[in-house]
Amino acid sequence: MFVRLKWYPYPCILVPVTFILGLEDQYAIEGDEEASFMCAISDPEAEVTWYRESEALSEGEKYSFVAEGARRKLLIRDIKTADQTKYSCATNADKTEANLFVEAFVDFFPGLEDQYAVEQDAQAQFSCKATHPNAEVTWYRSDQKIENSEKYEILVDGFDHTLIIKDIQIKDESSYSCATKHRKTTARLFVEALIDFCPGLEDQFAVEKDPQAQFSCKLNQPNVETTWYREDKKLENSDKYQIIVKGYDHHLIIKDIRQEDDTSYSCATQHRKTTAKLIVGELVDFCPGLEDQYAVEQDAQAQFSCKMTQPDAEATWYRSDEKIENSEKYEIIADGYDHTLIIKDIHLRDETSYSCASKHRKTTAKLFVEALIDFCPGLEDQFAVEKDPLAKFSCKLNQANVETTWYREDEKLENSEKYQIIVKGYDHHLIIKDIRQEDDTSYSCATKHRKTTAKLIVGELVDFAPGLEDQYAIENDAQATFSCKMTQPDAEATWYRSDEKIEASDRYEIIADGYDHTLIIKNIQIKDETSYSCESRHRKTTAKLFVEGLLDILGPEDVYAVEKDTQAQFMCQMTKPAADAVWYKGDEKIEESDKYRIIVFGFLHTLTINDIQLEDEATYSVQSKHRKKPANLFVEGTDNAPGIYGHICC
């Protein structure tokens, strides 16, 4: 080590120069403009020498020396990491040294850049490079430090630094920073509201030479800009393609379908893309298609039928928009080209549209179901006799004033001299006039839905000649008898009490003998009074049985008198008060006179005979409507007198 000594022209003594303030370690960062060392010496006029390690330094662009009184400075410019070493300052007698520590400058190149994400994206990522590998950095969201978590992932790979933000939401839009000790880089995350498809495209089916096929989709925001693609080729409006936007709805119409149009088509927004395929195949069409069908409530079934242009083609049936499967209600039949849907147990609710769909086409028709117009009751067989003035068929419908048609066998009937058709509300009648043998056949009444048929049976008249006549009986009579004659021998007859059929029994005896028919009613009671009928196939005769309560007589008894007695008297009692009675002498009716006095008092009846003579001896009787009771008057002086005198008293 050489020390420069100051030369004096005069003899002198060398004074040692020492440091009153030594150097101290200095810290700088790569790229700093300068770093400086400072010390102070004991002689302000003394010179010093600066060293970098053992190399003496000279002033220039890199280094400068400054002397300010006792202070000495070393200025090091344009700091590099290579400047990190030991620096010293020496006097003639002393030396001080210190280290310059140069920290490598950690910068970003490139720094962060703004990022763009869409709501619901899985993640967004910020990336930057540091100028030194594995440099320590800190990430910030605005001014808040970010740590590794479920939301944030921080990655370091050599020079590369990455922040991953997961599960993007609108609230994640903010500024994000990456900082070293020396530098900070900042960028922003922009989060857009998601523009999505709801629904997206669906595969479409077309047939070569179809006039067009259409793709449609909806977006969750109106009037959004979209781009359509055929595979990867962008589509524009042209003779082949028509692009339509109506609010939320976006459509692509492909015209004049050809086999080469069979490919994928996409609609894309800035966030999402939906893709579907146009499948162009051989046409499976309907020829003929479905036709409207008409049924009536309670019909067993209704049937739709159609043909396809390809055998055994797959078909799907629909009720309105609801798919139909085989069940107790529906039967689906496919037989080669023929496709059939059978709807069973028809009700009014079955009225709607029904469709059969192939891969390419759909045919639709409607089932019309009418409320049932039915007969209740329908026609019944009628019986008539040739030359009868008329015969009549009658029936009722469940709705009023319904249009009906009458038939003789299969011949439609109209109003005429022979036939009269009558409609009164629910009631329908056919009157056939001037009955002849050729009228013996079937007759029908038909509505739109139902038909009722019965037969007119025209036969030889079985009539009554004479018919029944009213009969009169008295309570407790043994029997009453009805008799009539029929115009045909051994004809079948039915007897009725009012409307109740009579069978042979202990109570009733029925006798048929050739033309004669007899009903014997036994043990007559008041309750037997009613109408009785005898009915043949064609006619009916009716008469009434009148039953009177029994009017009976108690007494009179025999009376004995003496000739020239003032009077004799017969007495009896009736079962009803004030009943009519007639007195007889023998067969001669007795009238009230001086000779005879007749008295009625309640139940008691009295005949008084005045001025008794021998010729008054006779049989006397009293007669009610139902009974006659005799008694004898014996007058003394005749052989019959028993010698007893008296009168009847009862």
Q: What would the keywords be for this entry?
A:
single chain; Immunoglobulin-like; 5-stranded mixed sheet; 49% strand; disordered N terminus; disordered C terminus
Task: Write structural notes for this entry.
The chain is mostly beta strands and 650 residues long. It has seven domains: 19-103, Immunoglobulin-like (Sandwich), CATH 2.60.40.10; 115-192, Immunoglobulins (Immunoglobulin-like, Sandwich); 204-281, Immunoglobulins (Immunoglobulin-like, Sandwich); 293-370, Sandwich (Immunoglobulin-like), CATH 2.60.40; 382-459, Sandwich (Immunoglobulin-like), CATH 2.60.40.10; 471-548, Sandwich (Immunoglobulin-like), CATH 2.60.40.10; 553-636, Immunoglobulins (Immunoglobulin-like, Sandwich). It is 0% helix and 49% strand. Mean pLDDT is 90; it is low at 1-8 and 638-650. Its main location: cytoplasm. Residues 16-101, 110-190, 199-279, 288-368, 377-457, 466-546 form the Ig-like domain. This is Titin-like.
Q: What is the CATH homologous superfamily assignment of the largest domain?
A: Immunoglobulins
Overall CATH class of the largest domain: Mainly Beta
Q: Indicate the low-confidence ranges by residue numbers.
A: 1-8, 638-650
Strand order of the largest sheet: 2-9-8-4-5
The proportion of residues forming helix, as a percent range, comes to under 10%
Write the topology of this structure.
Blueprint: E1 19-21, E2 26-29, E3 34-41, E4 49-52, E5 55-56, E6 63-68, E7 71-77, E8 85-90, E9 95-103, E10 115-118, E11 123-129, E12 138-141, E13 144-145, E14 152-157, E15 160-166, E16 174-179, E17 184-192, E18 204-207, E19 212-218, E20 227-230, E21 233-234, E22 241-246, E23 249-255, E24 264-268, E25 273-281, E26 293-296, E27 301-307, E28 316-319, E29 322-323, E30 330-335, E31 338-344, E32 352-357, E33 362-370, E34 382-385, E35 390-396, E36 405-408, E37 411-412, E38 419-424, E39 427-433, E40 441-446, E41 451-459, E42 471-474, E43 479-485, E44 494-497, E45 500-501, E46 508-513, E47 516-522, E48 530-535, E49 540-548, E50 553-554, E51 559-562, E52 567-574, E53 582-585, E54 588-589, E55 596-601, E56 604-610, E57 618-623, E58 628-636
Parallel strand pairs: 2-9, 10-17, 18-25, 26-33, 34-41, 42-49, 51-58
Antiparallel strand pairs: 1-3, 3-7, 4-5, 4-8, 6-7, 8-9, 11-15, 12-13, 12-16, 14-15, 16-17, 19-23, 20-21, 20-24, 22-23, 24-25, 27-31, 28-29, 28-32, 30-31, 32-33, 35-39, 36-37, 36-40, 38-39, 40-41, 43-47, 44-45, 44-48, 46-47, 48-49, 50-52, 52-56, 53-54, 53-57, 55-56, 57-58
